[in-house]
Design goal:
The chain is an alpha/beta fold. It contains seven helices and ten strands. The chain has a domain of 49 residues. The strands form two sheets. The chain has a seven-stranded mixed sheet with strand order 3-2-1-7-8-10-9, with helices on one face. α6 links the parallel β7 and β8.
Amino acid sequence: MDKCIIDLYDLNNECSGVFVQIGAGAGNLDKRAKFRDGFTEFVKSMPRQKLKKVVLVEPNPINIPLLKECWKGYHECYLYEVGIVPKTYNNKILELYYCPLDAPHYQVASVKKSHVQHHYGEDCEIHKFDIPVITIEQFIRDAIGTDKIELLALDIEGVDAEILLELDLQTLNVKYLSFEHVHLCENKETVFHHLESNGFEFIGLGVDHNGCDCLFINKRFC
């Protein structure tokens, strides 16, 4: 079995202390996920002195109260209630679609209605929120600046492949990149090739506690 990030990570190595989770949900307080979240577990397993900044991005307002509760007491934590979208999305406000059957924390809520319908059927009841959105590169510039990101974890329901393929990986100041591969579908090989041809190497499983994430390392930081 592929090793996961917890097996691979050496706490004795130099660490920038900046950890970013895009698609934070309710943290480890989602009862449907059996109160588990791989990113939360990984970051909280680290010595507190290693943590400089923990950045959480979650567009669904329903999840914000529990996400705040999850990270209560962590002064290093910064929460952004915004959606991350590809550059082809020109509006600053978009609709976030969800199905009531996905309650209480709507893990497959997406700016793509078809993504929700893929999970719950084309005839499923659809509700929606209006949410502010931003591209990932703009978000990193605004929220992180020039700091090196130790780990960037992505779970952006329905648009993961589009965002990964448009990333300027030559300038991305990220050491470890963890992302959900399940919904990449026919784009998986293209995404892997894009990463590998730009200096990233697949090294195992990422932060998802169900083993659904791939983990890449930026060879510039090896």
